[in-house]
Amino acid sequence: MEHSPNDVTERLNDLEIKSSYAEDLLEQLNMTIYRQQQQIDSLILQVAQLRLQSQNAGQDGGARNLRDELPPHY
Question: For the region Disordered, what residue ranges are annotated (predicted)?
Answer without folding.
Answer: 54-74
